[in-house]
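Dig into what follows:

_____
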Amino acid sequence: MWARTQCIALASFLIFSSTILMASPRWADDASTKAARELVQKIAAQIDHKKKVMVEVADMTGEMRAAELDDAKKMIESELRARGLRTVADSSFDVKVRITLSQDLIERIWVAEYEAEGTRAVLVAQFEHTGLDIRPWMTGAHLDRELIFSDNALFLDFVECRRPTKETCGAELVLFPKELMGMKGWESFPDVLIAHEKPTSRDVRGRIRLIDGRFESRIEDAICSGDTNLSNPKCVTSKNPWSFWGPGGESANAILADGQNWFTWVGGALPNADAKREPFFSLAGIEVNGEPGWISSGTDGKVRIFNNKTGEILGTAAGWGSELAAVKTECGNGWQILATRQRDRTETDAVTVFEWTGSEFRALTDPLEMNGTIVSMWSADGEGPARAVVHNLKTGNYEAYLLKVGCSQ
């Protein structure tokens, strides 16, 4: 993981320096300034001043706008230079410092992470927020995970089969890169081999869903469908776009970029040019202000929420990870967003529940730490928990989880 020590100190100090306080951002106050200064002192004492440092700033609270994140990064770099450290914005860095603003049920948390000389440093600074009270939002929901099964081989997605007769239907259908397998508990039964027209990409994408007692799976150019007991399945290769489904029966189409793990909109998918043009890693249907909408994680690092009918972008966020899903619940406004955090494949992932208030994103839960990196995360069709496949960094296994959002009193 990154250097919470440096990052937080730097981010906090710069973000909460006199310049920021004069600008009066919503996330700055005396407590955070004091915590930031303490962290800056520790960071400056730990980093070799001969090293070139690159800074990244992320926000898991949903309170900082993109412009504020940019300002925070610039201030952090300025403070680093003032303390004798050299900052760079390219790949020539010796140390990468990532600063993340997070929060728990009571406090806000600055986290700084970095790696130097083969050793990871992490520093956490907690401080009470004396400004905007976020606790009513934070107590509105909780996130739980349920382990369904694990396997030592990579799989891309899974579904629970809810047909009444379990004897003819596996408890789960599991999608591997080259086969679809039925599972009862931890034991497998008949599988379907999946032939690909060309080799799959390194970051292969796959999805499986149930439709009226039947399944449909998609892995890049291969589409399979059939009964959930996997008898008489049909598999074909296809260059047709992928379909994504949202509330109210709305759908959107996108093409998986050749050899990549991101999608591009099919022309005319949305009326708004900016919304349809930006490639994305994840797309989830969500109800926005009582109307069908979408939320996407763009390849440019920005999350966008937009109206399905007009394509109007209603809000953006930065600093989130590339995987997201939406769930319908009885909490808050009825729809919540599950978002991963920024990380690389050597770091454990975490999932935070957000809600769109109509003007901004708000975090409803603490980040839920996972056992490794999230390979994929998909929304359920209709109501139900989201699905996540996690690569456990300790055991090396791949684990299937249901992510359930519950309402808190």
Observations:
- The mean pLDDT is 79.
